[in-house]
Specification:
six-stranded antiparallel β-sheet, mainly beta, Beta-galactosidase, Chain A, domain 5
Length: 306
């Protein structure tokens, strides 16, 4: 019997909002409002490619050489990005998550990170997706179920679209004061102010020919404590806000220039992250999860205009 390569699909509905989450990695496959796609996801019968919608735990982005030192112990992770010699995007992307609750507009999924080579810690992870009048809200919480303090970070990898053929004319706003300059392997080498550089998107402007696979930090937040990345259609009449709340300190913006032909610059990945790339090596914003302790990341998507 044929089964989708991403497993069982859970559909959420709230008025004109429709989202779908898959069993594999509890990845966000699609989200549309009144028939307008907000995400460049993957087909119901297609495999997940390029990290689309995936949850990145217990670290987002890359760890150089897969090597890090934690509490006096040297640890080595498998190199899941062998072309650059990195461990990338955590350990639960290709794992079946358990659907533990759904009421039609809300769904909950759970999975465990079991002790393994390079990460000898046990985590229980819970992801909740909920649709409401304001859009889609995502909350991911991890608990340390083991006896040792565990290093922890998290991110997620949605690709946003406003319906244009390419991202070049899309109006982008990124409320970040700094960006991390990276080397050829995607690892940070310095943090620099965006002011006066091509990476300053604090005021909305077209992406144009900018090639972005860029981590941003020092996020500006509103009165609700949210940093809001905005993608707007060239007309300025509609678009999508991706907001970052609790547990988010950095974000990555990727224009897809290294993807296969036909996928390049088709959408913009805007990735909320609790820590920057290579955080297990640098220690920057790594959460030390005490036994029994937990960490929560919250982010969401709000469509606007019409």
């Amino acid at each position: 019997m044929y089964e989708s390569p991403s497993g069982h699909r859970t559909t959420l509905r709230h008025h004109e909002h429709v989202a779908e989450v898959v069993e594999l990695g509890a990845a966000l496959r699609s989200y549309a409002v009144a028939g307008r796609p907000l995400l460049d996801g993957f087909g119901a019968d297609e495999p997940i490619t390029a990290g689309r919608g995936q949850i990145l735990v217990p670290w987002p982005n890359r760890i150089g050489g897969g090597r890090y030192r934690w509490r006096g112990e040297d640890l080595q992770l498998p190199l899941s990005e062998p072309e650059h010699g990195n461990a990338i995007h955590g350990l639960l992307r290709w794992t079946s998550w358990r659907a533990t609750g759904s009421d039609g507009r809300r769904a909950v999924f759970e999975a465990d990170v079991w002790p393994q080579p390079g990460y000898p810690f046990h985590l229980r992870v819970r992801a909740e997706y909920a649709l409401g009048d304001a859009g889609l809200e995502v909350e991911v919480t991890a608990w340390n179920r083991g006896r040792e303090v565990a290093p922890y970070g998290i991110g997620q990898h949605p690709y946003l679209t406003v319906g244009t053929a390419t991202v070049d004319e899309v109006l982008l706003t990124v409320p970040a004061e700094t960006r991390l300059r990276t080397d050829g392997a995607g690892l940070p080498v310095a943090e620099e102010p965006v002011s006066g550089t091509p990476y300053d998107f604090r005021t909305a402007r077209p992406i144009g020919g900018a090639v972005l696979d860029t981590p941003f930090g020092s996020l500006q937040r509103d009165g609700q404590g949210r940093a809001v990345v905005r993608l707007a259609h060239p007309s300025g009449r509609y678009g999508t806000d991706l907001w970052l709340a609790e547990g988010t300190e950095y974000l990555q913006v990727y224009t897809g220039d290294t993807l296969p032909r036909g996928q390049r610059r088709r959408a913009v990945a805007v990735e909320p992250m609790s820590c920057p790339p290579d955080a297990f090596t640098s220690g920057t914003s790594v959460v030390a999860l005490e036994p029994g302790g937990h960490h929560t990341m919250r982010w969401g998507l709000t469509p606007w205009g019409g």
